[in-house]
Amino acid sequence: MENQDRPVSRALARVFAFWRTDLPRPVLLLQGGFALNFFGTGLILPFEIIYLHGVRGFSTATAGLVLATVMATAAVVTLPSGALLDHFSAKRILIAGNLVNAVGYGGLAFVHRPWQGFVFSAIGGAGFGLVGTASQVLTLTLVPVEQRAASTALRRVAGNFGLGLGATFAGLIVAAAPHDLHAFQALYLFDAVTFTAFALVVLVGIPNPGVATTATASSTSKSGQGFRTVVRDRLLLALIAGNFALVMIGGAYFSNILPPFAVAHTPVGAGEIGVVVFINTFFIVVAQVPATRAVARMRRTHALAVTSAIFAVGMLGVLLATKTESAAAATTVLAGVAILIAIAECGQFIVLGPLVAELAPPHLLGRYMSLYQLSFMAGVAAGPAVGGALLATSPNAIWWSGAITMALTGAGFLRLGDRVPDPLLPTKPPPLAASDAA
User: Fold this and answer.
1) Closest by alpha carbon to 47, among 144, 174, 138?
2) In the prediction, which pLDDT does 345 show?
């Protein structure tokens, strides 16, 4: 019996080895806090308009504007947060951002009038602007360069797992008490508690990686550089433009445009859409860490081109779902699309984030990462705007034009060629000194 158990144990060990990251304990603790933080976000994210409209009595238009204030404020704060991160440690900024978030979302539990909603949403957005960039910088600076992809992957797993778990838990509460003020207040207050708990985790358990030397930061400020230097980095701008396209079309189209399109133009309903979204989130959680090993065997430009191609195939897959005649067949096709999008997102995140950090001079890391973070926000905002306009005029054009754009984006990544630093490329030997040549 014992001998029979050994092959099973070895098989399980090989399976779990795919999820090993060998990351240091502070990084694991940081991502545990990140998962808790996103659990709190998941508690309220799917139900904010329901709360503001159905419970607080705001019009749907006003409720939408209140929520838009969060993203708008976060976008405004993101670039200044990068400048702060070049002068103060990411640990301090992350703690401060989480406490600001706690005030904003705790306050939303007690709003009675729209102006109060706008005020507390702006506070919460400011917190997100600080936390978004600071958490990325801290994730990257706690590990050596060769572990940055794994650290980024684990951060994404933690966020998606926490978000999905929180949304599921909150869904059960809202279903049991759909318009209960106290139930919604409890969700918002617990969300505030998770922000505070995350701040405590960072304060107590995470070491301070420090910042660039004061002399370097001071000279940068006095010379009037900073963001001027950042925007002169053409390689960075090319990567930012590519990331914007991937987020807008590959991410936002799937998250925001696919559900209404599928309900209107395929046999699926809301229930099947929920299954498709769950499959996407589940696959990201399962595949993100193993994908790090697969991508490590590829040149970065090739990995980004493959990522773009997978997004393009996913876009065309949506059109295939419109040719089906049963809900089961359409759901199967869209589930395949969800898996393709998940695979592409895995490659996108673990290549671009560490690459942008590698391009950044140490004293400008915060600014580089804040511009990278802003490209996500811009893509998330532009996707629904462009996709919504096409949805009203030429729905199928969303997907074939998206596929073409993704193909062009992949070609653009390939054209960057050897300009992109890559550990798989042979390093050029330093030139011989004149004395050696003599």
Assistant:
1) 174
2) 92
